Amino acid sequence: MTHLILCREYPPAPYPAGGIGTYSRHIARLLAESGERVHVIAQRWDGAPQALSSLYDGRLLIHRISLEAPLVDDPVHYQEQREILQGLALSTCPTQLFAWQAARYVERLLETKFVDVIEAPEWEASLYYLMVRRALGLGPVQKPPCIVHLHSPTRMIFEHNQWDMTLTDFGPLCRLEEYTIRAADALICPSRYLAEGVTASYELERGRIDVIPYPMGDTSPVRRELEVWKSDAICYVGRLELRKGVIEWVEAAVQVAASHPTVSFDFFGNDTTLGGGFGASVLESLRALIPTGLRPRFRFHGGQSRESLLLHLSRVAIAVVPSRWENFPFTCIEAMAAGLPLIVSPCGGMVELVTDAESGWIAPDGTAQGLAVALLRALATPASTRKAMGQAASTAVRSRCANEVVLQEQLAFRQQVVTAGATRSCRVGGMSPVQPLAPERQGMGIVVTCLDQPQRLADCLHSIIAQSVTVTTVVVVAENLRQSVASVFRNITTDQPHNMQWVFIQDASGDGAVAIGIAHLRERVPQLRSVALLDQNAQPASDYAARCESAFALQPSLGLVSPWLTVSDRRKELDPGPCPLSFNSAAECDLPMYSAVRLIAIPAGSEGQESRWLKEGGWTAVTYPGLIVTVSSPPLSRRLFAPRRRYSGMALIQSGTLRFALMWFMGAPWGEKLRWLGRVAGQPRRALSWVRWRIFGS
Hints:
Spore Coat Polysaccharide Biosynthesis Protein SpsA, Chain A, Rossmann fold, 26 helices, 698 residues, 25 strands, 4 domains
C-alpha cells in the first residue's frame, strides 16, 4: 500500500514535538521498513528547509510545505492564494494555514501519485480543508479514504489545562476538529480511555473507534546499579502543563518529602503558561508551592535531548505520570521500555499498560492525596522489588507496544479501511442524506435587502447579472429608502434579459426583510432549489451561484452554504466566518447574511424564526472555502459581536513565523511583552520579511 500522513509537527518541527510527532515518525519508519510506500506532509521552516527528503531507498518521502508561499505558479491563482494565506494568517484561527496548504498540496500530489489511504491527527484538523473540498466536488478524482488518529482534541486539552476558552482560536479549532472526527472514514486511537471519552463527548456510535497502541520505537532497557534502585530518586518527564498533573504531583511530593529526607524529584520538560499563552509560568507556580527548605530536592531541568534524557533515566529508580487527563503518553511507554516502574494516576491510558504492584503503583485518584498514597507505597518498596517491577514494566510494554505487533495491527486496520473506501469523507460533516429529494428542484433565487446606503446597490445588482449561471428571480427588499432604492433598481433592471425575473418590494419592516423576500420567492417560484441572502454591500463573484448550486446538487443533506467573505472596508481582509458552521451554532443565530439556503429545508411560515430548522430537520451546513463574496464593509452583526482578538502564545511557538508573534504581542501583558521582545530582536530577517509583506504585499 501507499500511505499519506499529514503531521505538522513531524520532527524536526518548529516547536518541541510531542506525542503526535513521535508517533508519526515511528509509524512512517515502520511502514517504510516493512516495504510500504509512505508520503509525509510536514511544515517547512528554517530548521527543515528542504522541500523533499527521501529515506529507505525512496520508500519514505517527506514533503515539507511553507505556510507563506502559495503552491501555484500561474499569476491569477497565485495572487488569489496569496490573499487567502494572508487572510487566514490574520484571522481568528491562524493555525488553519497548515490545513489549507496541506489540502492544496495533497490534491496536487493525488493528480500524479496513487495513494491508498490518508492519515492525520484530529488536533488542529489538518484534514479539514481536504475533506470539505472533497465533499463539495473540488479537487482530484482520486479520493483515498481518510483516517483520523485521535491524540488529544483541543476541547479536552483546554478543559483539563484550565486554559482561557475566550482565546479566539479555541472555538474555531474545536469545530474544525469535530468536523474531521465526524467526517473521517475511520477513526483510530491508542487508548480505550480516550476512545470512550471521545465517543461520549462527540456522541459517536459505539465501536466506531479502533484502538491500536502507539509503537514503542527504539528505546532499550537501561542498566542500573543496585545503588540506583536503593535511592529514592523519582523523575517526571513531559511538558509542564496542568493537565499533566504537575500541580497535584508537586503538592503530593512536598507532603511526602517533609517526612522522607532521602527522596528527590527531577522534572524534565518544557515550561508552559497557565492560560494557554497568557498568564504566569507553570514552572514559577510549581516553585512557589515548594517550601524553601525542600527546594534543593526539586530539580527542574527543562527540555532535554533524547540522549540526555536516557542518561538521566539511568540515574533514577522510579518515574511518574500523574496526569489529570491523558491519552497514551509516550513518556509512559519510554520510561517502561527503559526498565522503570511507574507511579501513575488512573486518569488515562497509563492503566492499560501498568499493573498495580507488578509494574508500578496506580494511585486511587488523580488528586494530590491520591498521588501521595501511591508515592508512599513506592518509597516503602524494597530495592530488589523495584528492580523486578522495572523488568516487569519493560516486558509489559514490549508485549503491548512492540513495533512488529503494532505494525501488523496497523496494516490489517489500514487494509480494511482501503477495502471499505471513502464514504463519510465525501459527505459534508459525514452526514447521510436526510430525506429523498425527488423531484429534484432547480435554480437559485436571490433576496437583496437594502436598508441603508442605496448607492452601493448598483454594484451588487451588476454582480448578480454577471453570474455564470442564470439566477431565476431577484427580489430587492427596501425599508425606509424606498424612492432612492427604487430609482437604482429601475436603472439597472429595465433592459435586462427576460430570463431573469426582478421584483422590488417596498413595504418591509427592518427585522422582516429577509423573511418577506424568502416568502415571496416561495410563492412566486415554488420549484426553486435555493435562495441566496445578500445586501447592498455584497458583490458576489461571477461563480457564486454556480458554486452554491453545485454544492446543493452534490450533497442532498446540505441545507446551508456560508461562504468566506473578502472584506474591503479600509483594508482588504479575509473573514472565514463560522468555520465550519456547525449545526448547533447555526441553530442559535439568524440566517447568516451572504449565505445560500436550500428552500425546501425552511419549513413554510418559519422564515422569520431564526435557523433552528437546520438542527430540527437534520440538515447539514458548510462554510465554502473560497473567495466568492466581497463586501464593502463587514456586516453589523460581525462588527458588534466579533471576538476580541487575543491570540495564544502557543500559536507563535507552533507557527515558526513572526506574524503570529506580533498578533499575540498586541494582547499580551507587559511582562510577557518584554520577554518576547528579546526573542523578536534575535529574528531580524523574519521581522523585515513581515514588514515587507504587510506594506508591499509581497
